[in-house]
Amino acid sequence: MELVVARIGRAHGIKGEVTVEVRTDEPELRLSPGAVLRTEPASAGPLTIETGRVHSGRLMLRFAGVKDRTAAEALRNILLIADVDPDELPEEEDEYYDHQLMDLDVVLEDGTEIGRITEISHLPSQDLFIVERPDGTEVMIPFVEEIVAEIDLEEQRCVITPPPGLIDDRAEIASARDAEAADAEARSSEAASSEGASSEGDAR
């Protein structure tokens, strides 16, 4: 099985080094010196990692044959891909590989559908699920214990308990606006009825 483990960023310095956006929980395994990775597009690879280091919270890599900044810049935005046994599981019980989480249905505890995981972003501070909503919009869900209540691989779903404001609540806002408009219309009708009654009384 193919696993996207990183995306190459901008060149760093003049000796062929590049920054990478890590997309794996195991960079020490997937992105270590000597690792041979396929690429997307395939014409850019395969690439062999020559050196790796962390600088200012970012992983820097140098690939064999990439000797200067011009060659490094040519690799920008290329995806790095590792071949992973689909039956391979992380050592820790509460850890998951990206391919296990991709396409999981995201729901609230009451079963309300939120969307589907289409991408996982590995940031220095935390991991984020990029979730595509039924209307095509996207929402970012932090992969933290306080929000992700359950990962059920058998049922292919992710249960979340988001804090207020995390999920796009345009439907709730629209509903509230509709209710407010209906209330205003009702008050207007009552006012009109009262005026009509007063006029009728005056006529009598």
TrEMBL record:
It is found in: Cytoplasm. Residues 99-166 form the Ribosome maturation factor RimM PRC barrel domain. Residues 189-204 have a biased composition (Low complexity). The keyword Chaperone applies. Residues 172-204 are annotated as: Disordered. Keywords: Chaperone, Cytoplasm, Ribosome biogenesis, rRNA processing. Residues 172-188 have a biased composition (Basic and acidic residues). Residues 4-83 form the RimM N-terminal domain. Belongs to the RimM family. An accessory protein needed during the final step in the assembly of 30S ribosomal subunit, possibly for assembly of the head region. Essential for efficient processing of 16S rRNA. May be needed both before and after RbfA during the maturation of 16S rRNA. It has affinity for free ribosomal 30S subunits but not for 70S ribosomes. Binds ribosomal protein uS19. The PRC barrel domain binds ribosomal protein uS19. This is Ribosome maturation factor RimM. The lineage of its organism: Bacteria, Bacillati, Actinomycetota, Actinomycetes, Kitasatosporales.
